[in-house]
Predict the structure.
Amino acid sequence: MLKFVLLGLLDAEPRYGYELKAVFERFLGGTWPLNIGQVYTALSRMERDGLVDCQVVPQDLLPDRKVYALTGKGRRELRAWLAEPDTGPVSLRDEFFLKIAIASLNDERPREVINRQRTEHLSALAELGRLQHDPNLDPATGLLLEGAMLRLEADLKWLDVCEDRLKNST
Amino acid sequence: MIELCAVERAYDSDEARVNALRGIDLSIDKGEFVAIIGPSGSGKSTLLHLMGALDQPTAGDVVLCGRSLSTHSRKELARIRSTTVGFVFQAFNLVPGISAAENIALPAVLARKRPSEYQPEVDRLLDLVDLTIKRNRLPNQLSGGEQQRVAFARALTMDPPILLADEPTGNLDTKAGEGIMDLLEASHDAGRTVVLVTHDLRLASRAQRIVHLRDGRITNVTCPSPRNRALEDILEVGDGDPG
Protein backbone atom coordinates (compact mmCIF):
# COMPACT_ATOMS: atom_id res chain seq x y z
CA MET A 1 0.00 0.00 0.00
CA LEU A 2 2.91 2.34 0.83
CA LYS A 3 4.12 1.91 -2.75
CA PHE A 4 0.91 3.30 -4.22
CA VAL A 5 0.77 6.27 -1.87
CA LEU A 6 4.36 7.13 -2.83
CA LEU A 7 3.53 6.72 -6.53
CA GLY A 8 0.53 9.00 -6.04
CA LEU A 9 2.61 11.68 -4.36
CA LEU A 10 5.31 11.46 -7.07
CA ASP A 11 2.60 11.76 -9.75
CA ALA A 12 2.02 15.33 -8.58
CA GLU A 13 5.70 16.28 -8.97
CA PRO A 14 9.20 14.70 -8.83
CA ARG A 15 10.70 14.71 -5.33
CA TYR A 16 13.79 13.56 -3.46
CA GLY A 17 13.64 11.06 -0.59
CA TYR A 18 13.45 13.32 2.46
CA GLU A 19 10.96 15.61 0.74
CA LEU A 20 8.78 12.61 -0.13
CA LYS A 21 8.85 11.43 3.49
CA ALA A 22 7.82 14.91 4.71
CA VAL A 23 4.99 15.24 2.14
CA PHE A 24 3.78 11.71 2.96
CA GLU A 25 3.61 12.40 6.69
CA ARG A 26 1.92 15.78 6.26
CA PHE A 27 -0.61 14.22 3.85
CA LEU A 28 -1.64 11.68 6.49
CA GLY A 29 -1.49 14.09 9.43
CA GLY A 30 1.38 12.15 10.99
CA THR A 31 -0.82 9.06 11.49
CA TRP A 32 1.59 6.84 9.54
CA PRO A 33 5.16 7.73 10.52
CA LEU A 34 7.87 6.48 8.16
CA ASN A 35 11.57 6.21 8.68
CA ILE A 36 13.72 7.36 5.81
CA GLY A 37 15.07 3.83 5.36
CA GLN A 38 11.57 2.60 4.50
CA VAL A 39 11.22 5.35 1.91
CA TYR A 40 14.55 4.56 0.23
CA THR A 41 13.88 0.81 0.28
CA ALA A 42 10.51 1.38 -1.38
CA LEU A 43 12.01 3.84 -3.92
CA SER A 44 14.82 1.47 -4.93
CA ARG A 45 12.33 -1.38 -5.44
CA MET A 46 10.13 0.90 -7.51
CA GLU A 47 13.17 1.98 -9.54
CA ARG A 48 14.16 -1.67 -10.05
CA ASP A 49 10.61 -2.42 -11.27
CA GLY A 50 10.71 0.53 -13.68
CA LEU A 51 7.97 2.50 -11.88
CA VAL A 52 10.15 5.53 -11.12
CA ASP A 53 13.19 7.18 -12.69
CA CYS A 54 15.96 8.68 -10.64
CA GLN A 55 17.96 11.76 -11.58
CA VAL A 56 21.05 12.83 -9.66
CA VAL A 57 21.10 16.57 -8.94
CA PRO A 58 24.43 17.96 -7.71
CA GLN A 59 24.35 20.49 -4.86
CA ASP A 60 26.90 23.04 -3.64
CA LEU A 61 28.68 21.89 -0.47
CA LEU A 62 26.08 19.14 0.09
CA PRO A 63 25.89 15.55 -1.14
CA ASP A 64 24.15 14.99 -4.48
CA ARG A 65 20.38 14.62 -4.38
CA LYS A 66 18.47 11.82 -6.06
CA VAL A 67 15.21 13.18 -7.46
CA TYR A 68 12.58 10.56 -8.27
CA ALA A 69 9.90 10.91 -10.95
CA LEU A 70 7.10 8.64 -12.11
CA THR A 71 7.60 6.66 -15.34
CA GLY A 72 4.82 5.80 -17.80
CA LYS A 73 4.69 2.31 -16.30
CA GLY A 74 4.48 3.75 -12.78
CA ARG A 75 1.63 6.00 -13.84
CA ARG A 76 -0.25 3.07 -15.42
CA GLU A 77 0.20 1.00 -12.27
CA LEU A 78 -1.05 3.87 -10.11
CA ARG A 79 -4.15 4.33 -12.33
CA ALA A 80 -4.88 0.60 -12.18
CA TRP A 81 -4.66 0.66 -8.36
CA LEU A 82 -6.97 3.69 -8.17
CA ALA A 83 -9.48 2.06 -10.52
CA GLU A 84 -9.69 -1.14 -8.50
CA PRO A 85 -12.19 -1.14 -5.58
CA ASP A 86 -10.97 -2.62 -2.33
CA THR A 87 -12.42 -6.13 -2.25
CA GLY A 88 -10.68 -7.28 0.93
CA PRO A 89 -12.75 -8.76 3.79
CA VAL A 90 -14.53 -6.42 6.22
CA SER A 91 -12.03 -5.90 9.01
CA LEU A 92 -13.14 -6.60 12.59
CA ARG A 93 -9.64 -7.18 13.90
CA ASP A 94 -9.95 -4.55 16.61
CA GLU A 95 -9.41 -6.02 20.03
CA PHE A 96 -12.56 -4.45 21.39
CA PHE A 97 -14.87 -6.58 19.23
CA LEU A 98 -13.30 -9.74 20.61
CA LYS A 99 -13.19 -8.42 24.16
CA ILE A 100 -16.92 -7.72 24.20
CA ALA A 101 -17.79 -10.98 22.47
CA ILE A 102 -15.73 -12.94 25.03
CA ALA A 103 -17.10 -10.94 27.98
CA SER A 104 -20.66 -11.71 26.79
CA LEU A 105 -19.82 -15.38 26.38
CA ASN A 106 -18.25 -15.77 29.82
CA ASP A 107 -20.63 -13.59 31.81
CA GLU A 108 -17.76 -11.30 32.86
CA ARG A 109 -19.93 -8.27 33.54
CA PRO A 110 -20.29 -7.50 29.81
CA ARG A 111 -22.33 -4.39 30.56
CA GLU A 112 -19.37 -2.82 32.33
CA VAL A 113 -17.03 -3.80 29.52
CA ILE A 114 -19.46 -2.25 27.03
CA ASN A 115 -19.83 0.94 29.02
CA ARG A 116 -16.09 1.43 29.47
CA GLN A 117 -15.63 0.98 25.74
CA ARG A 118 -18.48 3.39 25.06
CA THR A 119 -16.84 6.05 27.23
CA GLU A 120 -13.53 5.49 25.43
CA HIS A 121 -15.13 5.78 21.98
CA LEU A 122 -17.05 8.91 22.95
CA SER A 123 -13.83 10.44 24.29
CA ALA A 124 -12.02 9.64 21.02
CA LEU A 125 -14.97 11.09 19.08
CA ALA A 126 -14.67 14.32 21.09
CA GLU A 127 -10.92 14.47 20.47
CA LEU A 128 -11.24 13.89 16.72
CA GLY A 129 -14.01 16.51 16.62
CA ARG A 130 -11.66 19.02 18.22
CA LEU A 131 -8.88 18.18 15.72
CA GLN A 132 -11.35 18.66 12.86
CA HIS A 133 -11.60 22.32 13.88
CA ASP A 134 -7.90 22.93 13.16
CA PRO A 135 -7.88 25.60 10.42
CA ASN A 136 -4.52 24.29 9.10
CA LEU A 137 -5.85 20.77 8.65
CA ASP A 138 -4.69 19.15 5.40
CA PRO A 139 -7.80 18.26 3.29
CA ALA A 140 -6.63 14.63 2.97
CA THR A 141 -6.17 14.39 6.73
CA GLY A 142 -9.65 15.88 7.12
CA LEU A 143 -11.06 13.00 5.07
CA LEU A 144 -9.23 10.47 7.25
CA LEU A 145 -10.61 12.16 10.36
CA GLU A 146 -14.13 12.02 8.95
CA GLY A 147 -13.67 8.31 8.18
CA ALA A 148 -12.40 7.61 11.67
CA MET A 149 -15.35 9.47 13.23
CA LEU A 150 -17.89 7.57 11.11
CA ARG A 151 -16.29 4.28 12.21
CA LEU A 152 -16.45 5.30 15.86
CA GLU A 153 -20.13 6.17 15.44
CA ALA A 154 -20.77 2.76 13.85
CA ASP A 155 -18.87 1.03 16.68
CA LEU A 156 -20.95 2.94 19.25
CA LYS A 157 -24.12 1.73 17.52
CA TRP A 158 -22.76 -1.81 17.61
CA LEU A 159 -22.27 -1.44 21.38
CA ASP A 160 -25.95 -0.46 21.67
CA VAL A 161 -26.88 -3.61 19.74
CA CYS A 162 -24.65 -5.73 22.04
CA GLU A 163 -26.39 -4.25 25.06
CA ASP A 164 -29.84 -4.89 23.58
CA ARG A 165 -28.99 -8.54 22.87
CA LEU A 166 -27.75 -8.97 26.42
CA LYS A 167 -30.94 -7.48 27.78
CA ASN A 168 -33.05 -9.83 25.69
CA SER A 169 -31.06 -12.89 26.69
CA THR A 170 -31.29 -12.29 30.46
CA MET B 1 -29.80 22.99 39.61
CA ILE B 2 -32.14 20.39 38.04
CA GLU B 3 -33.33 17.40 40.09
CA LEU B 4 -35.64 14.66 38.87
CA CYS B 5 -36.84 12.16 41.46
CA ALA B 6 -38.65 8.99 40.34
CA VAL B 7 -40.20 10.91 37.47
CA GLU B 8 -42.80 9.18 35.34
CA ARG B 9 -44.79 10.51 32.44
CA ALA B 10 -47.63 8.54 30.88
CA TYR B 11 -49.96 9.54 28.08
CA ASP B 12 -53.45 8.12 27.92
CA SER B 13 -55.10 7.55 24.61
CA ASP B 14 -58.34 5.80 23.71
CA GLU B 15 -56.63 2.48 23.15
CA ALA B 16 -53.82 2.33 25.66
CA ARG B 17 -51.59 4.05 28.15
CA VAL B 18 -48.13 4.97 26.82
CA ASN B 19 -45.38 5.22 29.40
CA ALA B 20 -42.96 7.76 27.92
CA LEU B 21 -40.80 7.93 31.06
CA ARG B 22 -40.62 5.11 33.62
CA GLY B 23 -38.85 6.24 36.76
CA ILE B 24 -36.12 8.80 36.03
CA ASP B 25 -33.67 9.83 38.74
CA LEU B 26 -31.27 12.46 37.53
CA SER B 27 -29.43 15.36 39.08
CA ILE B 28 -27.76 18.05 36.98
CA ASP B 29 -25.34 20.44 38.68
CA LYS B 30 -25.08 24.16 38.17
CA GLY B 31 -22.83 24.93 35.21
CA GLU B 32 -22.89 21.38 33.88
CA PHE B 33 -23.17 20.49 30.17
CA VAL B 34 -25.25 17.32 29.80
CA ALA B 35 -26.31 15.57 26.60
CA ILE B 36 -29.31 13.23 26.48
CA ILE B 37 -29.14 10.65 23.72
CA GLY B 38 -31.30 7.75 22.65
CA PRO B 39 -33.34 6.47 19.72
CA SER B 40 -36.58 8.13 18.59
CA GLY B 41 -39.36 7.48 21.06
CA SER B 42 -36.99 6.85 23.96
CA GLY B 43 -38.41 9.80 25.89
CA LYS B 44 -35.66 12.39 25.31
CA SER B 45 -37.90 15.32 24.43
CA THR B 46 -40.45 14.45 27.11
CA LEU B 47 -37.63 14.53 29.66
CA LEU B 48 -36.42 17.91 28.44
CA HIS B 49 -39.94 19.36 28.53
CA LEU B 50 -40.31 18.23 32.15
CA MET B 51 -36.97 19.84 33.04
CA GLY B 52 -38.16 23.08 31.53
CA ALA B 53 -41.59 23.09 33.20
CA LEU B 54 -43.28 22.84 29.80
CA ASP B 55 -44.94 19.65 31.01
CA GLN B 56 -45.66 17.98 34.32
CA PRO B 57 -44.87 14.43 35.45
CA THR B 58 -47.64 11.92 36.19
CA ALA B 59 -45.55 10.72 39.16
CA GLY B 60 -42.39 11.89 40.89
CA ASP B 61 -41.06 15.40 41.20
CA VAL B 62 -38.95 17.90 39.26
CA VAL B 63 -36.99 20.44 41.28
CA LEU B 64 -35.67 23.44 39.39
CA CYS B 65 -33.24 25.80 41.15
CA GLY B 66 -34.44 24.47 44.51
CA ARG B 67 -38.16 24.88 43.70
CA SER B 68 -40.39 21.84 43.35
CA LEU B 69 -42.49 22.26 40.23
CA SER B 70 -45.34 20.05 41.47
CA THR B 71 -46.57 22.61 43.99
CA HIS B 72 -47.07 25.47 41.55
CA SER B 73 -50.03 26.64 39.50
CA ARG B 74 -49.77 26.91 35.71
CA LYS B 75 -49.33 30.66 36.00
CA GLU B 76 -46.52 30.31 38.52
CA LEU B 77 -44.90 27.63 36.37
CA ALA B 78 -44.92 30.01 33.41
CA ARG B 79 -43.20 32.66 35.54
CA ILE B 80 -40.54 30.23 36.80
CA ARG B 81 -39.99 29.04 33.25
CA SER B 82 -39.53 32.53 31.84
CA THR B 83 -36.83 33.49 34.34
CA THR B 84 -34.91 30.24 34.77
CA VAL B 85 -35.05 28.38 31.46
CA GLY B 86 -34.25 29.23 27.85
CA PHE B 87 -35.44 26.83 25.14
CA VAL B 88 -34.05 26.13 21.69
CA PHE B 89 -36.21 23.84 19.53
CA GLN B 90 -35.43 21.89 16.38
CA ALA B 91 -38.08 23.79 14.39
CA PHE B 92 -36.84 27.27 15.51
CA ASN B 93 -40.40 28.28 16.53
CA LEU B 94 -39.99 31.96 15.65
CA VAL B 95 -43.03 34.22 15.43
CA PRO B 96 -43.48 34.72 11.66
CA GLY B 97 -44.79 38.29 11.26
CA ILE B 98 -42.15 40.11 13.32
CA SER B 99 -38.46 40.89 12.80
CA ALA B 100 -35.42 39.04 14.17
CA ALA B 101 -34.87 41.78 16.76
CA GLU B 102 -38.56 41.70 17.79
CA ASN B 103 -38.44 37.93 18.18
CA ILE B 104 -35.45 38.27 20.48
CA ALA B 105 -37.20 41.01 22.47
CA LEU B 106 -40.41 38.97 22.78
CA PRO B 107 -39.73 37.24 26.14
CA ALA B 108 -38.95 40.64 27.70
CA VAL B 109 -42.06 42.21 26.16
CA LEU B 110 -44.21 39.37 27.52
CA ALA B 111 -42.62 39.92 30.94
CA ARG B 112 -43.81 43.56 30.64
CA LYS B 113 -40.34 45.05 30.60
CA ARG B 114 -39.80 48.50 29.11
CA PRO B 115 -37.84 48.83 25.84
CA SER B 116 -35.17 50.85 27.66
CA GLU B 117 -34.65 47.83 29.93
CA TYR B 118 -34.32 45.16 27.26
CA GLN B 119 -33.05 46.99 24.18
CA PRO B 120 -29.35 46.95 25.17
CA GLU B 121 -29.59 43.20 25.82
CA VAL B 122 -31.31 42.59 22.47
CA ASP B 123 -28.52 44.53 20.73
CA ARG B 124 -25.88 42.54 22.57
CA LEU B 125 -27.54 39.23 21.66
CA LEU B 126 -27.88 40.22 17.99
CA ASP B 127 -24.14 40.89 18.03
CA LEU B 128 -23.44 37.60 19.81
CA VAL B 129 -25.22 35.62 17.09
CA ASP B 130 -23.74 37.83 14.36
CA LEU B 131 -27.07 39.09 13.02
CA THR B 132 -26.90 42.81 13.78
CA ILE B 133 -27.14 43.74 10.09
CA LYS B 134 -30.15 41.45 9.59
CA ARG B 135 -32.01 42.59 12.69
CA ASN B 136 -35.01 43.91 10.73
CA ARG B 137 -35.47 40.83 8.56
CA LEU B 138 -38.55 38.68 9.03
CA PRO B 139 -37.96 34.99 9.84
CA ASN B 140 -38.85 33.91 6.28
CA GLN B 141 -36.14 36.27 4.97
CA LEU B 142 -33.47 34.40 6.96
CA SER B 143 -31.71 31.08 6.28
CA GLY B 144 -32.36 28.10 8.57
CA GLY B 145 -29.07 28.64 10.38
CA GLU B 146 -29.86 32.34 10.88
CA GLN B 147 -33.35 31.56 12.18
CA GLN B 148 -31.89 29.14 14.70
CA ARG B 149 -29.38 31.79 15.79
CA VAL B 150 -32.32 34.17 16.40
CA ALA B 151 -34.04 31.39 18.39
CA PHE B 152 -30.85 30.86 20.37
CA ALA B 153 -30.59 34.59 21.15
CA ARG B 154 -34.27 34.65 22.16
CA ALA B 155 -33.60 31.81 24.62
CA LEU B 156 -31.08 34.08 26.37
CA THR B 157 -33.12 37.31 26.44
CA MET B 158 -34.16 36.86 30.07
CA ASP B 159 -30.62 35.70 30.98
CA PRO B 160 -31.79 32.31 32.32
CA PRO B 161 -29.29 30.15 34.25
CA ILE B 162 -30.46 27.04 32.33
CA LEU B 163 -30.44 26.49 28.58
CA LEU B 164 -32.37 23.50 27.18
CA ALA B 165 -31.89 22.53 23.52
CA ASP B 166 -34.00 19.91 21.75
CA GLU B 167 -32.22 18.67 18.58
CA PRO B 168 -31.16 22.28 17.83
CA THR B 169 -29.11 21.24 14.79
CA GLY B 170 -31.64 18.70 13.47
CA ASN B 171 -32.93 20.93 10.66
CA LEU B 172 -29.56 22.48 9.76
CA ASP B 173 -26.69 21.62 7.44
CA THR B 174 -23.36 20.69 9.02
CA LYS B 175 -21.86 24.18 8.93
CA ALA B 176 -24.92 25.95 10.36
CA GLY B 177 -25.24 23.19 12.99
CA GLU B 178 -21.62 23.75 13.94
CA GLY B 179 -22.37 27.45 14.50
CA ILE B 180 -25.21 26.57 16.90
CA MET B 181 -23.02 24.04 18.76
CA ASP B 182 -20.32 26.71 19.17
CA LEU B 183 -22.94 29.08 20.64
CA LEU B 184 -24.14 26.36 23.05
CA GLU B 185 -20.58 25.66 24.17
CA ALA B 186 -19.84 29.37 24.60
CA SER B 187 -22.99 29.65 26.69
CA HIS B 188 -21.79 26.77 28.87
CA ASP B 189 -18.33 28.34 29.16
CA ALA B 190 -20.05 31.52 30.36
CA GLY B 191 -21.44 29.53 33.30
CA ARG B 192 -24.86 28.37 32.13
CA THR B 193 -26.23 24.90 32.76
CA VAL B 194 -26.81 23.38 29.33
CA VAL B 195 -28.88 20.30 28.51
CA LEU B 196 -28.79 19.11 24.92
CA VAL B 197 -31.12 16.46 23.50
CA THR B 198 -29.67 14.90 20.37
CA HIS B 199 -29.34 11.65 18.48
CA ASP B 200 -26.02 12.85 17.03
CA LEU B 201 -23.16 11.12 18.87
CA ARG B 202 -20.59 13.66 17.67
CA LEU B 203 -22.49 16.51 19.24
CA ALA B 204 -23.16 14.51 22.39
CA SER B 205 -19.45 13.69 22.77
CA ARG B 206 -18.80 17.39 23.38
CA ALA B 207 -20.83 17.33 26.62
CA GLN B 208 -19.35 16.62 30.06
CA ARG B 209 -21.90 13.92 30.78
CA ILE B 210 -24.02 11.82 28.45
CA VAL B 211 -27.27 10.29 29.64
CA HIS B 212 -28.39 7.32 27.54
CA LEU B 213 -32.15 6.88 27.40
CA ARG B 214 -34.00 3.78 26.16
CA ASP B 215 -37.70 3.01 26.42
CA GLY B 216 -38.21 5.73 28.99
CA ARG B 217 -35.39 4.62 31.29
CA ILE B 218 -31.82 5.75 31.83
CA THR B 219 -29.67 2.82 30.73
CA ASN B 220 -26.27 4.45 31.08
CA VAL B 221 -24.42 7.56 32.04
CA THR B 222 -21.02 8.20 30.50
CA CYS B 223 -18.51 10.99 31.00
CA PRO B 224 -16.25 11.36 27.95
CA SER B 225 -12.75 12.45 28.94
CA PRO B 226 -10.92 13.82 25.90
CA ARG B 227 -7.19 13.65 26.59
CA ASN B 228 -5.78 16.19 24.13
CA ARG B 229 -3.83 13.51 22.33
CA ALA B 230 -2.17 14.18 18.98
CA LEU B 231 -3.91 12.83 15.89
CA GLU B 232 -1.33 10.06 15.40
CA ASP B 233 -2.05 8.75 18.90
CA ILE B 234 -5.78 8.36 18.17
CA LEU B 235 -5.77 7.34 14.54
CA GLU B 236 -3.68 4.73 12.79
CA VAL B 237 -3.46 4.66 9.01
CA GLY B 238 -1.56 2.21 6.85
CA ASP B 239 0.05 -1.10 7.59
CA GLY B 240 3.67 -0.02 7.98
CA ASP B 241 4.61 -2.53 5.31
CA PRO B 242 7.16 -0.90 2.98
CA GLY B 243 6.35 -3.43 0.21
Notes: Chain B touches chain A at residues 201-202, 204-206, 210, 219-220, 222-232, 234-243 (CB under 8 Å). The first strand of chain B starts at residue 2 and ends at 12.
